[in-house]
Amino acid sequence: MALELYLDLFSQPARSVYIFAKINNIKFDFKKITLFAGEQYGEEYGKINMMRKVPAMRDGEFHLAESIAIMMYLSEKFQTPDHWYPTDIQKRARVNEYLSWQHTAVRMHGTRVFWLRLMIPKMLGEEVPKDKMAAALEDLDGSLQLIEEKFLQDRPFIAGDDISLADLVAIVEIMQPVGSGLVVFEKRPKLSGWRNRVRAAIGPELFDEAHQIILSAQEMVKSMDGSTLQPFKPKILRLFL
Ligand SMILES: N[C@@H](CCC(=O)N[C@@H](CS)C(=O)NCC(=O)O)C(=O)O
After folding, report:
1. Are 7 and 54 in contact (CB under 8 A)?
2. Whose C-alpha lies nearest to ligand 1, atom 10?
3. How far apart are CA 8 and CA 14, in angstroms?
4. Which atom number of ligand 1 is nearest to the Cα of residue 70?
5. How confident is the model at residue 226, as a pLDDT?
6. Among 7, 73, 103, 225, which residue's CB has the most CB atoms within a 10 Å radius?
7. Which parts of the chain sit beneath pLDDT 70?
8. CB-ligand 1 contact for 66 (6 Å cutoff)
9. What does each C-alpha distance from 64 to 12, 59, 77 come to in angstroms?
10. CB 67 less than 6 A from any atom of ligand 1
11. Which domains does the chain show, CATH number per domain?
């Protein structure tokens, strides 16, 4: 049985797993789980991932959730090039340091900005108080500043001269608020130079293909049916407002 990856490219961690598998020529069946249609709550998907999130992986009888765990599994199983998850313990520690930090920093703040700027007003019809928006933008800005000053410093990539899982996880998260129309790179030359290197290392075609959905999100929401999200409105507002 081929390796199965359960993905929706609207999701940042799903994109990182998708890019990682593609760039390493790992063969897989793309199992689309449409989050906005609530497919993650279906009975069948509950058997794949009881946490009801994407991404998830099935390799024969073995099921795995969590993007970072999935990419580490794939890197070991398929012996991907060392730079992705270096065996040198200090380089690996740099990658781990970023991966450990980002959940409650770039991921949390970038996701919040995406929902506050785009999904909550346009799909749920809810007005976002100005102070909430300002606080979310400030938090995101603080995280981007730390990526530049602490994680990148003067290095081309987070762990040194080559791209690693840390850069991949970072870029997919930063692209989420970009998808809501936020100007991120233009005012940050260091981050912008790094983004260009990451895109070149991934390959512009694969990078753009993986981000096509999120970069057309502003256009898509115009024709999307907001009623599919209504049942989740209390949960969404609790999470982001
Ligand atoms: N820590 C998890 C996060 C997974 C996650 O939160 N996925 C979101 C999309 S970005 C999801 O599936 N949400 C569906 C829901 O909460 O209903 C990972 O890295 O895989």
Report:
1. yes
2. 11
3. 6
4. 20
5. 83
6. 7
7. none
8. yes
9. 17, 8, 13
10. yes
11. 4-80 (3.40.30.10), 89-240 (1.20.1050.10)
